[in-house]
Specification:
The protein has 55 residues and is an all-beta fold. Helices cover 0% and strands 47% of the residues. It has no helices and five strands. The radius of gyration is 10 Å and the shape is globular.
Amino acid sequence: MDEFAIGDTVQITGSLMTGQVGTVVYLDEPNGKYLVRVGGLSQNYFTADEIEKFG
């Protein structure tokens, strides 16, 4: 799980929230997922193949 780090800005490419840009705020290493927060109220877990670095 070294593709992304906390604080990275990413764009969601998966089927949920596609195209949204957010920030990685937590690494769920046992499950291989990243918690991405979009705006102040929305967040969800994504695998590395569902997000890409933005910018």
